[in-house]
UniProtKB/TrEMBL annotation:
Annotated source species: Sphenostylis stenocarpa
Family of this protein: Belongs to the germin family.
Name of the protein in question: Germin-like protein
Molecular function (Gene Ontology), one example: manganese ion binding
Keywords: Apoplast, Disulfide bond, Glycoprotein, Manganese, Metal-binding, Secreted, Signal
Pfam assignment, any one: Cupin_1
């Protein structure tokens, strides 16, 4: 009798290798107890008897963020502090304000995929896959784009005068965010010059310049 080990193995590894969102909650809700003194994978819950509707509402995304920084963007996101009711639910909503010609520089979220909707302005968005292929698109208000989990992506406001606004949903309550330029050139303590010189094929002077510009 023929065995189907290779097929079985392949199927199993596909199933096991599947990327999963945050773990499912084991109760209806787990409203964050932000005063918790110990660390678990997430935030502990308050007593369900003490939960009120206000734990499930926030106006955190109602105001535009301050985009006066070198890149010209601001991200305001829901989290377990401003919206304690989202604890363990595996999602976040983020407001992204981008000044005229501002960018959200190439960055990645290690724990979440992201779908972004352009609400105002003209956005050039895109991501790079692991073979360094770039997928970009121009978004008009009402159009959405998805950035797969962990991949480097960016948003650019093509309009030099008008600010742009986008709303992003991410499938983790704590997606994490790593801006490529800051992670490499503005880490604390710094990555030694020798590594950056070789990685980016630049001189020590250029390393210094980039570091200074990113401060
Ligand atoms: C925005 O941030 C800049 C730089 O940090 C600061 O100078 C400015 O006062 C802020 N604007 C507002 C409206 O908070």
């Amino acid at each position: 009798m023929r065995t189907h080990f290779p097929l079985l193995f392949f199927t199993l590894s596909l199933l096991l290798g599947q990327s999963r969102p945050d773990p499912d909650p084991l109760q209806d809700y787990c409203v964050a107890d932000n005063k918790g003194e110990f660390f678990i994978n997430g935030v502990p819950c308050i007593n369900p008897d003490k939960v009120s509707p206000s734990h499930f509402v926030t106006s955190a995304l109602s105001k535009s963020g301050n985009t006066s920084n070198q890149f010209g963007f601001s991200v305001t996101a829901t989290n377990t502090v401003n919206l304690p009711g989202l604890n363990t639910l595996g999602l976040v909503l983020a407001r992204v304000d981008i000044a005229g010609n501002g960018i959200v520089p190439p960055h990645s979220h290690p724990r979440a995929s992201e779908v972004t909707t352009c609400l105002k302005g003209q956005l050039l968005v895109g991501f790079v896959d692991t073979s360094n292929r770039v997928f970009t698109q121009n978004l008009k208000p009402g159009e959405s784009f998805v950035f797969p989990k962990g991949l480097v992506h960016f948003l650019f406001n093509r309009d030099s005068r008008e600010p742009a606004l986008a709303l992003s949903g991410l499938n983790s309550q704590n997606p994490g965010s790593q801006i490529v330029s800051l992670a490499t050139f503005a880490s604390k303590p710094p990555i030694i010059d020798e590594i950056l010189k070789k990685a980016f094929q630049i001189t020590g002077r250029e390393v210094e310049t980039i570091r200074r510009n990113l401060e």
